[in-house]
């Protein structure tokens, strides 16, 4: 299935109707071929419908304002409808995604010399949606609170300061809007 890129008109329209965007991300990087991504997106829309980008997910579970709903997912977008225009909405997307080997999204590399495995994320341009469900456009600034489960021997870095770290579980403070 072909993934449709966000158009300039769509980006302008969406930027004009969304406010108060924030993300709580919980990533599980313990899988070898895939990783789990749980996004909790808070936002206030001026319209009852919009969409999140999420590219290449193998599984998707969607909860909108506490209610499980069928995920209208086409391989690139999660369609949202019935949103409240009077208050902040909370959308949760749990997904399983493949690691990439091209450097974009959640990239994995195994050193051929010593067998060490490295995982890194590159979220520039429109690559964030290869890691988590989001409004993937740079004019919609948002804060990010990130939690990561990784093998205990790994070191995990993020944009927020470490709040806690215990045996493979890292929790980072929310960032200012970025």
Automatic annotation (TrEMBL):
What the entry lists under SUPFAM superfamilies is as follows: Leukotriene A4 hydrolase N-terminal domain
- Keyword line: Aminopeptidase, Hydrolase, Protease
**One GO MF term, please?**
aminopeptidase activity
Question: Which InterPro entries did the record assign?
Answer: Aminopeptidase_N-like_N, Aminopeptidase_N-like_N_sf
Checking Pfam families in the record gives: Peptidase_M1_N
Name the domain of life this protein comes from: Bacteria
Domain Aminopeptidase N-like N-terminal span(s) in chain numbering: 109-167
Q: Which Gene3D superfamilies match?
A: tricorn interacting facor f3 domain
Know the name of this protein?
Aminopeptidase N
Lineage summary: Bacteria, Bacillati, Actinomycetota, Actinomycetes, Propionibacteriales
């Amino acid at each position: 299935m072909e993934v449709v890129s966000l158009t300039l008109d769509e980006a302008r329209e969406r930027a004009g109707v969304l406010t108060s965007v924030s993300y709580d991300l919980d990533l599980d990087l313990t899988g070898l071929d895939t990783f789990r991504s749980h996004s909790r997106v808070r936002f206030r829309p001026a319209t009852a419908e919009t969409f999140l980008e999420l590219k290449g997910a193998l599984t998707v579970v969607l909860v909108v304002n506490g209610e499980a709903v069928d995920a209208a997912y086409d391989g690139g977008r999660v369609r949202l409808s019935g949103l409240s225009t009077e208050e902040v909405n909370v959308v949760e997307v749990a997904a399983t995604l493949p690691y990439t080997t091209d450097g974009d999204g959640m990239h994995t590399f195994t050193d051929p010399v010593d067998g060490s495995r490295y995982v890194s994320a590159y979220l520039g341009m429109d690559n964030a949606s290869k890691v988590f469900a989001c409004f993937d456009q740079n004019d919609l600034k948002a804060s990010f609170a990130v939690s990561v489960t990784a093998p205990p021997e790994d070191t995990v870095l993020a944009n927020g300061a470490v709040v806690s770290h215990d045996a493979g579980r890292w929790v980072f403070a929310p960032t200012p809007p970025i």
